[in-house]
Amino acid sequence: MSEHLHKQHIETGPPPALSPRARAELAERIRDWARELGFQQMGITDVDLGEHRDYLRKWLDAGYHGSMDYMARHGDKRARPEELVPGTCRVLSLRMDYLVADTRPLEVLDSPRRGYIARYTLGRDYHKLMRKRLAQLARRIAEEAGGGHYRAFVDSAPVLERAIAERAGLGWIAKNTMMINSRAGSWFFLGEIYTDLPLPASEPQQSKHCGSCTACLDICPTDAFVGPYQLDARRCISYLTIEHRGSIDPELRPLMGNRIFGCDDCQLVCPWNKFAHPTAEGDFQPRHQLEAPDLVELFLWDEATYLARTEGSALRRIGHERWLRNIAVALGNAPGSAAVIAALRQRRDHPSPLVREHVAWALERHGESRLTASGAESDRGST
């Protein structure tokens, strides 16, 4: 059996002609292999995502994707797996839990001198870990099945992963647009394997179980939810601190509090998360003592320190410039102190206009005018 592996793409010839019974038995064995690799659940779906395609079109047309141009560029191709990977007739959707015990998220959010980092980033970058595990699973399926094409994805291509997971029976898309599993809450990652192997599809999730609860909608610091199941990413703190590359809207900055990378508020209040279990995955345990970091200390990191202290973490994806931008906003929202003012002043002449803008805003929040921050006022006084 020849195998061609390009990143997460495995080709082993045409899919084998298996009987329905053999396909069902293979699907059960795949579930066992997935558990051995650290996945908590696997479901299988066909490629019919029609209703989700309509939702995606409306969401894009409303401009809720903000500056994530790649989403509009791919259009509703996300909802057509058979176009993304020709020949695909099934998608395997896999869940890996990441909740870490005892990171005290609510305490950190109530401590404005500390920075809040989304809990999923405290350990190793999940993209790397899950890609490797999915590739291992795909190779084993190919070997056992004796053929087929397989391509693994982890939040890295135009894949409508939550719609796929819902169709595969892993849970339902909740009012906060997160995926919820009735036995595991929402603290988990999703990964997919596209294949031309016609495995039996799982029973889709037929209903949503949020009921009349609106806790996630009500808690959002920036009112990013237009309504149930509708997120305006342009107001979402996760988008603003991670995806957005430019200036953060001054109207939203005070609402961000001390959240410097992502936001977990809508998960922290979800009643279903009382069923979430701490992960047994060692790579998801905190790696760099960033569960409750001091904002001033983080802001004074130079780029070399930033790279060293975020090695192997998803925090690396925003780069040092946006790291400083985000922390400047948090320092603007922090209680005033000599240490905060001194740290901000140290960065007010930073080479990046983006950083300078947010530092000036933060200093102004602490009573220091933009003129003073730029040195212009003192220059004027000396004439």
Automatic annotation (TrEMBL):
* Gene Ontology biological process terms from the UniProt entry: tRNA queuosine(34) biosynthetic process
Where is [4Fe-4S] cluster 1 bound in this sequence?
Answer: 210, 213, 216, 270
The residue ranges of the 4Fe-4S ferredoxin-type domain are 200-230
Catalytic reactions on record:
epoxyqueuosine(34) in tRNA + AH2 = queuosine(34) in tRNA + A + H2O
State its Enzyme Commission number(s). Answer: 1.17.99.6
Catalytic residues per the record? 155
Map out region (Disordered) in residue numbers: 1-21
Pfam families for this protein: Fer4_16, QueG_DUF1730
- Residues annotated as coiled-coil are none
Q: Which PROSITE patterns match?
A: 4FE4S_FER_1, 4FE4S_FER_2
Q: Which cofactor does it need?
A: [4Fe-4S] cluster; cob(II)alamin
Which is a Gene Ontology cellular component entry for this protein?
cytoplasm
Kindly list the positions annotated as binding [4Fe-4S] cluster 2: 220, 236, 263, 266
Where found, per UniProt? Cytoplasm
Describe how the cofactor binds: Binds 2 [4Fe-4S] clusters per monomer.
Q: Which residues bind cob(II)alamin?
A: 78, 155, 176, 190, 238, 263-264
How it assembles, according to the record, is:
Monomer.
Record's PANTHER family? EPOXYQUEUOSINE REDUCTASE (PTHR30002:SF4)
What family does the database annotate? Belongs to the QueG family.
The entry's function note states:
Catalyzes the conversion of epoxyqueuosine (oQ) to queuosine (Q), which is a hypermodified base found in the wobble positions of tRNA(Asp), tRNA(Asn), tRNA(His) and tRNA(Tyr).
Q: What is this protein called?
A: Epoxyqueuosine reductase
Organism classification: Bacteria, Pseudomonadati, Pseudomonadota, Gammaproteobacteria, Cellvibrionales
